[in-house]
């Protein structure tokens, strides 16, 4: 089982003495049956739901790239293979602008927990191939659909050449795991700053979404000033956070953290930093 | 009529801070799914509690010089004994909270409940050297037998009841037992689960409730130096001075307290 990297004693520091590592991410999703909106088990194909999801590729992703450009940061974009196939121009453009294209499964209609390890391997290979064919560079990071995974998933990813895994939630900061004789960086997700929460919570709005992020960031910054470097991860879905009501809070977050001693890398760069450091790899035993 | 409680040193409110330190074998609170299969992402989220959360909380308690009651699953003690030892050493109370949150007391017959309670006693004692005297069931779920078994197993308080603000004493199986009711409103589960709620919203809800209870505690009290000072404090709650007039806040409090006392004596 994993142990806290920064507790009880801090063991990780960021490059150039930065206090907080902040990764900004986009979940770029596509569905064949039904998206998040008006989800129902009654319909086999929910056209209204798919229409809502398609906003991500037609508008949301462009708006988010505009925000990154305006604020001069690069982000990690976790793409469904189907999104890459539907909107290849957007993915090529994101790649050309220096954003990282990571794998997020083929479609969000199902999850890795629905698949056998053999099927998981096929799923991962399909995603790797679709992204590589589109942008010319293979993805090295994986965050699965709904973050669902099985005990076998990490080993399959390491064997398929992946360098980071984004479906763990057991720490604030990343760590290195050893699985199938290979080292892989585990970069946990902070689900608090997930636009899904702002979107699905009824009374959520841009102000509360931003305020919740800001108070968490401020708290962690105080911890960092006391000697415990921290990490924050923000994720928006092109379909949800690409809309103006949430995009404005997302841009506010980027502007806010840039005022401080913050490191804003791609997730691939976080993995490079950890894997080239002398951080000890821990055996991957998620159920101990 | 119920006897009224008085707190030691005539304190107006008794505030207890509780931490639920949990561990799961199948799936935690996050991304809960149906069925008995192991939910790895959910367990990963739950393990944050032992890897980072509990240490952060320990630091907050120490920084603010308060002690808390830590309701522990036996499995959390087995997984993170160092954290439980550090909490115990710092003077916090370690209370029983089942062996894991995968099991509810309502799933168990009375004999199984007794075995569950004894297992927690043994696990906690092995790590801290002391048996817990307080119990909070996973999810607060309990049966009509639970309290009697707890009393029988040497417990002195139970935290599963929600039927009052203040604690009270009951007799069960010929033994006296203190019920310390739980206030679900101030459960972080609500702040976490409710969409984009912020820490300010969670704090504001707590503050509104606390202020209301404080007023209840002050109402009908004789006017004396203590109550006048408390009223003066309340009157300036949240006052934020400008750059150069911070001295006015304590000044104003003193004026309010004196005015109340002079009116009372007039």
Short descriptors:
heterodimer, A: 288 residues, alpha/beta, TIM Barrel, five-stranded parallel sheet, five-stranded mixed sheet, 10 strands, globular, B: 266 residues, 2 domains, four-stranded mixed sheet, three-stranded parallel sheet, 9 helices
Descriptive account of the structure:
The complex is a heterodimer of chains A (288) and B (266). Chain A is α/β, with parallel strands linked by helices. Chain A has one domain (29-283): Glycoside hydrolase/deacetylase (TIM Barrel, Alpha-Beta Barrel). Chain A has helices at residues 47-70, 81-86, 88-96, 117-135, 153-159, 195-200, 206-225, 244-257, 267-275, and strands spanning 20-28, 76-79, 100-103, 141-142, 164-165, 175-179, 182-186, 230-237, 262-263, 282-283. In chain A, the strands form two sheets. In chain A, strands 1, 2, 3, 8 and 9 form a five-stranded parallel sheet that branches. In chain A, a hairpin with a 2-residue loop joins strand 6 and strand 7. Chain A is globular. With 266 residues, chain B is α/β, with parallel strands linked by helices. Chain B has two domains: 8-182, TIM Barrel, CATH 3.20.20.370; 220-265, no CATH class. Chain B has nine helices and seven strands. Chain B has helices at residues 40-63, 74-79, 81-89, 110-128, 146-152, 188-193, 199-218, 225-235, 248-265; strands at residues 18-21, 69-72, 93-96, 134-135, 157-158, 168-172, 175-179. In chain B, strands 4-5-7-6 form a four-stranded mixed sheet. A three-stranded parallel sheet of chain B has the order 1-2-3. In chain B, helix 1 links the parallel strand 1 (18-21) and strand 2 (69-72). In chain B, helix 8 packs across helix 9 (248-265). Chain B starts with 17 loop residues before the first strand and ends with a helix. The mean pLDDT of chain B is 90. Chains A and B meet through helix 6 and helix 7 of A and helix 1 and helix 7 of B.
């Amino acid at each position: 089982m994993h142990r806290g990297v920064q507790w009880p004693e801090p063991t990780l520091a960021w490059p150039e003495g930065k206090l907080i590592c902040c990764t900004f991410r986009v979940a770029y999703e596509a569905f064949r049956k039904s998206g998040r909106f008006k989800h129902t088990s009654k319909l086999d194909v929910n056209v209204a739901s798919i229409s809502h999801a398609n906003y991500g590729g037609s508008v949301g992703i462009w708006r988010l790239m505009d925000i990154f450009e305006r604020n001069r940061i690069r982000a990690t974009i976790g793409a469904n293979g189907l999104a890459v196939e539907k909107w290849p121009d957007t993915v090529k453009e994101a790649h050309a602008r220096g954003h990282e294209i990571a794998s997020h499964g083929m479609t969000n209609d199902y999850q890795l927990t629905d698949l056998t390890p053999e099927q998981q391997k096929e799923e991962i290979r399909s995603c790797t191939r679709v992204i590589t064919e589109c942008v010319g560079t293979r993805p090295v990071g994986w965050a699965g659909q709904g973050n669902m995974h099985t005990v076998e998933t990490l080993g399959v990813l390491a064997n398929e050449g992946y360098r980071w895994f984004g479906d763990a939630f057991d720490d604030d900061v990343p760590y290195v795991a050893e699985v199938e004789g290979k080292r892989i960086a585990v970069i946990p997700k902070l689900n608090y700053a997930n636009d899904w929460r702002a979107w699905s919570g009824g009374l959520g709005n841009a102000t509360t979404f931003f305020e919740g992020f800001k108070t968490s960031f401020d708290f962690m910054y105080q911890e960092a000033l006391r000697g415990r470097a921290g990490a924050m991860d923000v994720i928006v879905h092109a379909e949800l956070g690409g809309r103006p009501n949430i995009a404005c809070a997302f841009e506010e977050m980027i502007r806010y953290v840039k005022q401080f001693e913050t490191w804003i890398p791609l997730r691939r760069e976080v993995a490079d930093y950890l894997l080239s450091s002398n951080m000890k790899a821990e055996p991957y035993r998620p159920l101990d | 009529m119920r006897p009224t409680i008085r707190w030691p040193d005539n304190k107006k409110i008794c505030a207890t801070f509780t931490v639920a330190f949990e561990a799961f074998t199948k799936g935690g609170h996050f991304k809960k799914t149906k069925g008995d299969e192991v939910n790895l992402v959910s367990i990963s989220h739950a393990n944050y509690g032992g890897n980072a959360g509990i240490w952060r909380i320990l630091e907050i308690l120490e920084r603010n010089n308060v002690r808390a009651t830590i309701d522990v699953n036996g499995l959390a003690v087995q997984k993170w004994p160092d954290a439980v030892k550090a909490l115990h050493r710092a003077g916090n109370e370690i209370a029983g909270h089942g062996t894991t949150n995968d099991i509810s007391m309502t799933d168990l017959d009375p004999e199984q409940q007794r075995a569950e309670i004894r297992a927690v006693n043994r696990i906690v004692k092995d790590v801290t050297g002391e048996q817990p005297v307080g119990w909070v069931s996973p999810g607060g779920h309990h049966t009509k037998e639970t309290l009697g078994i707890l009393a029988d197993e040497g417990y002195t308080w139970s935290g599963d009841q929600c039927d009052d603000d203040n604690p009270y004493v009951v007799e069960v199986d010929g033994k006296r037992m203190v019920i310390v009711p739980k206030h679900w409103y101030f459960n972080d589960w609500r702040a976490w689960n409710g969409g984009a709620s912020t820490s300010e919203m969670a704090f504001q809800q707590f503050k509104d409730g606390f202020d209301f209870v404080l007023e209840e505690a002050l109402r009908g009290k004789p006017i004396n130096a203590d109550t006048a000072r408390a009223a003066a404090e309340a009157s300036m709650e949240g006052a934020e001075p400008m750059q150069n007039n911070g001295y006015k806040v304590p000044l104003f409090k003193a004026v309010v307290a004196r005015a109340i006392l002079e009116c009372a004596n007039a």
